[in-house]
Write a structure and sequence with these properties.
Elements lengths: L2 H5 L12 H21 L7 H9 L6 H34 L11 H16 L4 H24 L7 H23 L3 H12 L7 H28 L3 H6 L4 H23 L5 H13 L3 H26 L7 H20 L5
Helix pairs in contact: 2-4, 2-13, 3-4, 4-9, 4-11, 4-12, 4-13, 5-6, 5-7, 5-8, 5-11, 6-7, 6-11, 9-11, 9-13, 12-13, 13-14
Length: 346
């Protein structure tokens, strides 16, 4: 496929939004503050000296320093997963031209969950590498199925048809997950902690496994952003600019599934991050995906990290899983967006 068919025949110089510099500075500052807060806050509050010991003095073996070291991998993993889910949400909204498209709403998370629980029940999987490949397969198959069902009939894949197809698929796959788990207590014990969605069990090996998928998915998203802008104007306009719309949709959707599937495999099915982060950025910067995609990554990382911190504080001395927190935040916002936008296409 030629470069023109991905990025568009006539690439115009990006029109930088007036407030872009201010927004990116604010977001980067918030990102740094969230990372620092994630290291300090939790069931055990860490002081500044303990924080510095944990970050820079490996010879110090105090309890506080060890808590900080444990939280470093958790914070890095949270930022990476949030960024991946943010970019995945932006891609799925663009490919489907659906303003409320999100991996969790379109059933992709549930498809990944079904394949993971099948792997636990029938293949005895237990490692991050095994989770990732099964979750990616489940996410990809579910995405194709939902888009196919939503495309049937007059008008093709309209926003409301895709949401309904995703909701029906999610309900059906959730029932299958439950049917597999109920007679197998060992599967339920292993799966239930993953199913809630958490970044608490993050390890450096899991992060190393996740990094290649994150890099590939984000690079594809950035490369396809100009062509996705053309696609937002309609298939006819995009075709006139040299964009192969079918190929573009396939590549962008695969990148979204890659990011979502890898994050879901390691952190569990965390919902609403892609929806929230992309909507916030679109409201502030406008629809240009050359800016929306990278900023959705930053805002997604911020939202997920804040949710993780809230879960630790609200559940103290225990912990409220991040998937529960994002559901509490995201569900009301989704209802408001659906009511205000009346499910209009992008």
């Amino acid at each position: 496929m030629s470069s023109n068919s991905v990025s568009g025949k006539r690439e115009l110089r990006p029109h930088v939004p007036r407030n872009f510099t201010r927004v990116i500075v604010i977001c980067l500052v918030l990102l740094g503050l969230c990372a620092a807060a994630s290291l300090v806050l939790g069931s055990r509050l860490v002081g500044i000296h303990e924080l510095l010991d944990g970050l820079f003095r490996q010879d110090v073996d105090s309890y506080g320093a060890n808590v900080v070291r444990k939280r470093i991998s958790r914070t890095v993993f949270s930022l990476m997963c949030g960024g991946a889910l943010g970019v995945s949400g932006a891609l799925m909204q663009s490919v489907t031209r659906n303003p409320i498209a999100d991996p969790s709403i379109l059933g992709v998370n549930t498809g990944a969950s079904l394949f993971v629980v099948c792997g636990i029940a029938f293949l005895n999987i237990s490692t991050a590498n095994e989770y990732i490949w099964l979750a990616l397969a489940g996410a990809a198959i579910t995405a194709v199925f939902v888009f196919g069902v939503g495309s049937v009939g007059r008008g093709g894949a309209t926003p409301i048809k895709l949401v309904l197809a995703g909701a029906a698929t999610t309900a059906a796959l959730s029932s299958l997950v439950t049917a597999i788990m109920i007679p197998r207590s060992y599967v339920m014990d292993q799966f239930r902690f993953w199913q809630v969605g958490s970044v608490g069990s993050a390890s450096w090996s899991a992060i190393a496994t996740f990094v290649p998928f994150l890099i590939i998915g984000v690079l594809i998203a950035i490369i396809t952003a100009p062509a996705l802008n053309a696609l937002a104007l309609g298939d006819e306009v995009a075709t006139g600019q040299g964009v192969r719309t079918g190929t573009l949709r396939l590549i962008a959707a695969l990148a979204g599934v890659l990011l979502c599937g890898a994050a879901t495999a390691l952190a569990g099915p965390i919902g609403f991050i892609g929806l929230l982060s992309t909507h916030v950025i679109r409201l502030i910067l406008g629809p240009d995906l050359r800016f929306v995609i990278p900023m959705s990554a930053i805002s997604g990382a911020i939202i997920l990290t804040i949710s993780d911190i809230l879960g630790r504080l609200l559940g103290s001395p225990g912990e409220l899983e991040v998937g529960v927190v994002t559901a509490f935040i995201g569900a009301p916002i989704l209802i408001i967006l659906a009511m205000k936008s009346k499910v209009r296409s992008l």
